[in-house]
Amino acid sequence: MAFTHTIDGKGETSEKAFDVINPATAQPFAKCPDASRAQLDAAVAAARKAFGPWSRKSFAERRALIAEFAHALAKRIDGIGPVLTQEQGKPLGQAKWEIGGAVHELEAMCNMELGTQLIRNDGKHRVELVYHPLGVVGAITPWNFPIILAAHKIAHGLYAGNTMVLKPSPYTPLATLLMGEAGRDTLPPGVLNIVAGGNDLGGWMTEHPGIDRISFTGSVATGKRVMASASGTLKRVTLELGGNDPAIVLEDANADQIVPSLFRGAFLNAGQICMAVKRVYAPEKLYEPLVAGLTKLALSHRVGNGMEPDVEMGPVQNKMQFDKVMNLIEDTKRHKSVRITAGGHSLNQPGYFIAPTVVADADDGMRLVREEQFGPVLPVLKYKDVDDAVRRANDTRFGLCASVWTEDYERGAEIARRVEAGTVWVNHHVGSEADMPFGGFKESGLGRELGTMGLASYMEPQVVKIPLRSGS
Ligand code: NAD
Prior knowledge:
alpha/beta, 39% helix, globular, 20 strands, 15 helices, binds nicotinamide-adenine-dinucleotide, six-stranded mixed β-sheet
C-alpha cells in the first residue's frame, strides 16, 4: 500500500521516507513519506489560497461538505482499520470504533453555529459580536488516538471557515494519511492538507508565518515548546496536554458495580489515553474489594497482537513509552510497602507488551502516582476522609479530568466541583462528547476543544458598535 501526503487536493510523495514500526512485532511494516520544508510551504500556500472561498461559504454549506467527507471516511473504515491497528497497536475492533467515532464527531460537532450575537441595544447604540474565521490552522496530533483527535481539529477548524495543514505523529502517520484521501474526494483543494514527517515538521509549523493558529494535542513538555515557538508570530494556540486523572471512590459506592468501569477507564487503549484513570483513591472500607476486583480483571484481560481475534488490549505504542512505563514499574518495586497484585512485568515475546498491572498500597510520593504513566499500570491509594482525598487528588500540576464514584449523585457533583480538572464525571470516566468543552486546568492545557467554546476558539471575535437614529 502506498501512502501519500495530501497537498492542494492531490496525493504527493517525498524524496525521503521513514519506517513505521508495528508495536506488536517491534518491526517496521511500512514506509511513510517525510515531508520537506518546501512541501510544508506548498501545503500552507494551498491552504491560504483556499481560505478566501471557503471562509465565505455559510455554516450550512461547510456542514454539507464536511458531512460528505465524513461519509467518505465511513466507507474506508475496513481499509483504514487494519493500518491503524498495525501502527498504533490497538485491537482491530477498537481501531474501527475509533474511525467510526471520528465519523460521528465530524457530523455532531458541525451541528452548532456561532451567529452574530447582540451584546446591547440601549436605544442609542446596537452593539454586536461577530465571529470571523482566523485563516490557516496548523493541527498537530499525538500517537494514541490519531484519527479521532484529527477529526476534532478538522471538524471545528474547517467548519469555522478556516483551512488546515495537519501533521500526525511520526509514530502513527499512516491512517491519518489515508484519512486525507477521503478529503481529496470531497473537499475543495487546499482546504484540508495532511503532511507527515518528524518532530522537525511540527517545529516548522509552529514558527511558520503563513499559519495563523496552532491546535496542538500532545505532551506537556512539547506543548510548552509549541507555545514558545508560536509566540514569535503571536499565533492563536490551544494546547490539549497530558493528565494524571484521579478517580475518587466514596464510601457508599457499590464496589462490584463500579470495578468494570474503573478498569475500562484505566486500561482502555493500554492506558494510553490523556483522560484515563491514572490514580484511584479508595476509602478504607472499600479498599480491599476494589483492589481484588481490579486485580481479577487485570489477570484475565487478553493481551496480544491487535490483529488477532478476541484480543482486548494491545502493546504500548512505541519503545520509548514502553521503556518509560517499565522504568516506572521498576521504581515502584523499590518501594517495599507496595503490593503488585497483577502484572508488574512485560510479556516474554517480541513487541512492546506490558501485562495489565495493579499496584496496591501505593503512596503519594511515588513517581507512579506523581507522573503521568500513560500505560497499563494503575496505583490504588487509601484515604481516611473525603477532604483528604480531594486535597491529594488536587496535589498535582495536572488538571485534565477526574471522577467521583457514589450512589448519591448530588453529593458526587458537590465533590466533583471541588476537584481542579477540566472535566469531572460522576460514576464514569473517559469519553468526549461533541457539545462538552474539553480541556485542562493547570499544565494539562490551554483553551478548550469541542462545544461552542471549541468552535469559538477557531474564530476571532469582533465587536461592531452601530449608532441608532432616534426612534429606530
Ligand atoms: P508529543 O508531545 O511527543 O507529540 C505530539 C505531537 O507533537 C507529534 O505529532 C509530534 O511529532 C509533535 N512534536 C514534537 N515535537 C514538536 C515541536 N517541537 N513542535 C511542534 N510539534 C512537535 O506527544 P505524544 O507522545 O505523541 O502523545 C502523548 C501525550 O499526549 C500524553 O502526554 C497525552 O496525555 C497527551 N494527549 C493529550 C490529549 C488531550 O486531549 N489533552 C489527548 C491525547 C494525548
